[in-house]
Design brief:
Layout: E1 7-12, E2 15-20, E3 23-27, E4 35-39, E5 42-46, E6 62-64, H1 76-81, E7 88-91, H2 92-98, E8 103-105, E9 110-114, E10 120-127, H3 136-139, E11 143-149, E12 154-157, H4 165-173, E13 177-181, E14 190-191
Parallel strand pairs: 3-6, 6-7, 7-8, 12-13
Antiparallel strand pairs: 1-2, 2-3, 4-5, 5-14, 9-10, 10-11, 11-12
């Protein structure tokens, strides 16, 4: 097994820069300043500004976008940043919505990026679910990713998912994972309760 160095830089929330194999890979870009996002009858409050300007991260060879439907994973500034990346990889439905050259992966489908040293980075879509069984009509599709380079330990990016049997299948299929990036945030949208009384802020 070839020894490699992986550098991780947490930008904010779900936004992480992964430097691996000569590539710069960004997860779920969120670069908006603090603000309130209306979500139907609820609100999502963002409290922190990104610590750096998005342009300072360039070049970005790939954005791994777990899903495009929620502002805490792809906000206004993050969406504006996507065309600056060489490629965007997300769900099949997300690729249709974002258009352009966005790559949509179903679970277990792959796409490949050539590396400067002549090897390839193989990105495999992995199952993810954004809540309890049957939540997809409400929250939409979500996807995770396994990053594999021949001779290196794999990197697993879970995507914005709960723990369920699909995650177990990732472990069964990939026995070379050396690093797992877990989405472990605590977004708390707040709005009117079912009894009509207001809930507190996030």
């Amino acid at each position: 097994m070839k020894k490699t160095t992986v550098r991780l830089t947490l930008i904010d929330g779900p936004t992480l820069l992964i430097e691996h194999g000569g590539l710069r890979i960004l997860t779920d870009p969120t670069f908006d300043p603090p603000q309130v996002y209306p979500l139907g009858g609820e609100n999502l409050n963002k409290f922190n500004a990104p610590p750096i300007a998005p342009e300072s991260l360039l070049p970005i060879h790939a954005v791994l976008l777990s899903h495009d439907q929620h502002m805490d994973n792809l906000d206004h500034a993050g969406r504006a940043f996507l065309p600056k990346a060489e490629r965007v990889i997300t769900t099949k439905g997300g690729a249709q919505r974002l258009g352009g050259s966005t790559i949509g992966l179903a679970p277990w489908a792959t796409t490949t990026i050539p590396l400067p040293d002549g090897r390839d980075l193989v990105i495999t879509g992995t199952p993810a679910r954004h809540g309890p069984v049957g939540i997809e009509p409400v929250t939409g599709q979500v996807i995770g990713f396994v990053l594999a380079i021949n001779g290196c330990r794999d990197i697993y990016v879970t995507g914005d998912t709960v723990w369920y049997e699909g995650i177990d299948e990732v472990a069964q299929r990939f026995d070379n994972i050396g690093l797992a990036v877990l989405f472990a945030g605590a977004a708390q949208p707040r709005g009117a309760r079912r009894d009509g009384r207001a809930q507190g802020g996030a």
